Hints:
Blueprint: E1 4-7, H1 9-16, H2 20-33, E2 46-48, E3 55-60, E4 63-70, E5 73-81, H3 85-92, H4 102-107
Parallel strand pairs: 1-5
Antiparallel strand pairs: 2-3, 3-4, 4-5
Amino acid sequence: MKFYLSFAPTADQSFSELPRPAQRQFNQAFDELVREPRRSRAGLDVHQLYGYQNIGTLRIPPYRGVYAIDGNEVVMVIFGHRDSVYSSLHRLLPPRRQAVSRTMLSRRR
């Protein structure tokens, strides 16, 4: 199954705040992410986040890109340093073992 990549408004803003080298590394990883976003392999370090049904994280040390899988769409939610990105995510979407959809991400600011 082919996945499509999109960005929530929070991801657009936080991606632009990353250093340029990290942005380039994320851009390279996006090609692998859309092939299969659920498992790690060479060139792609991902895992599912505890507390959510369909949220994963893409690791580009020391940064993280958090994404939701909604059908055949991979929606990037937020980017940031590993020390702060998860607290930012929890403010946006508290972990309640919920499935997160694209429409939920569009309503949040």
